[in-house]
Amino acid sequence: MSLPPYADFLGLKLIMDAEGPLLLMPNSDAVLGRPGFLHGGAISGLLEIAGIAALQASLGDGSTRVKPINVTVDFMRGGRLVDTYARGRVTRVGQRIANVAIEAWQDDPARPIAAARMNMSLDRAG
Amino acid sequence: MTTLPTGRSFDPAAFIDTFRSYGHNGALGTRFVQHGPDWVELALDYDEKLIGNTETGVLASGPIFSLMDMATSLAIWVRTDIFRPQATLDMRVDYLRPATPGRTVFGRGECYRVARRIAFVRGQAHDGDPNDPVAHVAGTFMFLDGE
Questions:
Q1: Where are the domains of chain A?
Q2: Which residues of chain B neighbour A44 with C-beta distances below 8 Å?
Q3: How big is chain B by its Cα radius of gyration, in Å?
Q4: Is the dihedral of CA B91, A90, A52, A114 positive or negative?
Q5: Which of B19, B20, B24 would you mutate first to test chain A, the one with the most A CBs within 10 A?
Q6: A5-124 sits in which CATH class?
Q7: Phi–psi pair at B23, nearest 5 degrees
Q8: Which UniProt keywords apply (chain B) (predicted)?
Q9: Which residues of A88-113 are buried (b: 16+ CB within 10 A; e: fewer)?
Q10: Does the residue B25 lie in any domain?
Q11: Do B87 and A70 touch (CB under 8 A)?
Q12: B3 lies in a domain?
């Protein structure tokens, strides 16, 4: 699985573990928002990339193209200037639509800083 | 470009200017375009480093989310005419169609209601024709100064 240029812009690193793709966003100037905190847009970018990665991993082969229809992001805590992780969970894959839930956290996965739901359209080859 | 009425104390153009070389908005290269009494329009120029799909060259959805988050956030300060610390509580973005590769994306955010603790916003993004938008957003911000 490869990440797009935008993921490099955010400095994202893809980690494959037993649960599937995990995305790491190290702190950098490119993700800084108001002084002392991560930018909500950068956190959303991380959530969206993690959502797409989770869906692509669950689809297996690379023959299906996925396209975000919409995303809804809840911000629960201010993002501090430290490593941030995100993982998506595919809640349903249909023939044409998939639903994915994503959470982002810093030190403790049980204390998410943001969560998102994405609806994605599937373009199956053949 | 709209000029600020006298007596106004929040200047979105100056605010964006201070962020040109700093942080996420600086890295994206977000530009100020114009504003009205309760809305702000920003622009995001096409940049290969923001591509989400290398086959098509289409921008990722994340930069459009950031553009709209910033435009709607500024719209609150323009409407209330005062800078108060605030944070995005939630934001929904509908990606109506892919932005055309090479084109600048314009994002207009509007603040349509300010309550004691929460401000309500909405907005649209387009890549040249406002009647053919690429994204639609709705969201809320919470004030952090504990009034």
A1: 5-124
A2: 62, 65-66, 69, 91
A3: 15
A4: positive
A5: B24
A6: alpha beta
A7: 65, -160
A8: Hydrolase
A9: bbbeebeeeebbbbbbbbbeeeeebb
A10: yes
A11: no
A12: no
